[in-house]
Design brief:
about 425 residues, 8-stranded mixed beta sheet, 15 helices, 8 strands
Length: about 425
């Protein structure tokens, strides 16, 4: 039974709000909840009047009961116009507070209800309608001052004792304070929710920016939005990797499976880049590009890249075994000067240019499957730490004959 009652009550509170979204919907829901609270406050007044003297207070009893019913029409008005319920509540509340203040006089302190109504103005009309809120607050203050100065005695048709007025006085003020507290609490609660949401969005944006751009570059871009960011690096090591035979492999699987396979493998490569302190530059289809020694200088950038290349080969073998596929990498590495910077403003990304980049890309293209191919420049830097196998001179498009080497493994192995 109670579940059914609660279900109907919640349905009535949300009645008509499905037409609205965002702040408008939350504001209308709040307005509907407020009228439910007003009705809940009317009930104790009616019971008190009935218990004290039902015959002498029959007119206030009927009036408060009618007002409680009238407030329940608010959801109907909100469903037609987003501010219809607000205007309706304003007029009804001013009429209610004015009438009960006239009936019971300022001695009952019931005119403080004007102030309770004024505090709900922003909740009802929202911050986007400040003028309506200011008008509502002004009318509430005017009604309070007018009732305090004008209604010195109860209405002539009510024969009320001083004891009744004292009881009403000591219940009206706490009720008003409770209503004001609820409104202030609601305001701070909403502000706290909004602040938490903003913090989550900020943290998400920071994490997204950190994934898109290197940390120092992201910080520089935030300090100087719109600034052109371009840096020259006298020496960096560039790695290009490509999955051999990926195109025919992709033709035998669904697009969803292909994307999942690439995501799984490249996620492992991302972890390796983090492990070795290297900067992932980008992915192009089934190609993966990493840079060492930038944006911050690293004396051992070539060693870091070589270690990652060996780990990438191992990770690919493990992944291929898990998938039951014959996957192998072709990797090219070259060391030299580069230029790096941020391209674009709508979808900015960090990229690297220069002959060093072109050479590393050519080494990957003219490489051997399952092998890590490096130039003589890179080999000279790494030969104290790693073993190499000479491939010999290879004709590279745009570069001529280059003496190339295969990186085999660590020297101490």
């Amino acid at each position: 039974m109670w579940d059914a009652v609660l279900s109907r009550l919640l349905a009535w509170v949300s009645f008509g709000t499905d037409k609205f979204q965002g702040p408008a919907k939350r504001r209308i829901l709040m307005t509907n909840i407020l009228v439910m609270l007003v009705t809940a406050l009317c009930v104790p007044h009616i019971l008190f009047f009935l218990a004290y003297d039902a015959s002498a207070l029959r007119i206030p009893i009927i009036f408060v009961a009618l007002v409680a019913i009238a407030f329940q029409l608010t959801p109907l008005l909100n469903s037609f116009w987003p501010y219809g319920g607000g205007f309706y509540n304003l007029v009804l509340w001013l009429g209610f507070a004015g009438t009960v203040s006239w009936m019971f006089s300022a001695q009952s302190a019931i005119h403080f209800y004007f102030l309770a109504g004024a505090t709900t103005a922003i909740a009802i009309f929202g911050v986007r309608q400040n003028m309506l809120s200011i008008i509502s607050i002004g009318l509430g203050l005017f009604g309070f001052i007018y009732a305090d100065r004008t209604f010195a005695e109860p209405a002539d048709f009510l024969n009320l004792s001083d004891n009744f007025l004292s009881i009403l006085y000591f219940t009206s003020i706490p009720t008003t304070l409770l209503a004001i507290f609820c409104m202030v609490f609601y305001g701070f609660k909403q502000a706290s929710i909004a602040e938490a949401a903003l913090q989550r969005e900020y943290e998400y944006s920071e994490a997204l920016l950190a994934n898109m751009l290197p940390g120092p570059i992201a910080s520089q871009l935030k300090r100087n939005p719109g600034q052109t960011i371009a840096d020259s690096h006298e020496e960096a090591t560039i790695l290009f990797a490509d999955i051999v035979g990926f195109t025919p492999l992709a033709s035998h699987h669904s697009p969803d499976t292909v994307v999942k396979m690439l995501n799984n493998l490249f996620t492992r490569f991302d972890d390796l880049a983090n492990k070795h302190g290297l900067e992932k530059i980008k992915t192009l289809g089934d190609a993966f590009m990493v840079a060492g020694g930038m944006p911050d200088p690293q004396p051992d950038h070539a060693v870091r890249v070589a270690n990652m290349a060996l780990d990438m080969v191992s990770a690919t073998q493990s992944f291929a075994s898990e998938m039951g596929e014959n996957l192998q990498l072709r990797i090219g590495i070259h060391t030299g000067p580069v230029v790096a910077g941020v391209i674009g403003t709508k979808k900015p990304f960090y990229d690297v240019w220069g002959d060093t980049v072109n050479t590393a890309a050519r080494l990957e293209t003219y490489g051997t499957k399952g092998k890590i191919q490096v130039t003589s420049e890179t080999k000279r830097i790494l030969e104290d730490h790693f073993d190499f196998e000479e491939r010999g001179k290879v004709q590279i498009k745009g570069k001529g004959d280059l003496n190339l080497w295969y990186l085999e493994g660590h020297r101490n192995a």
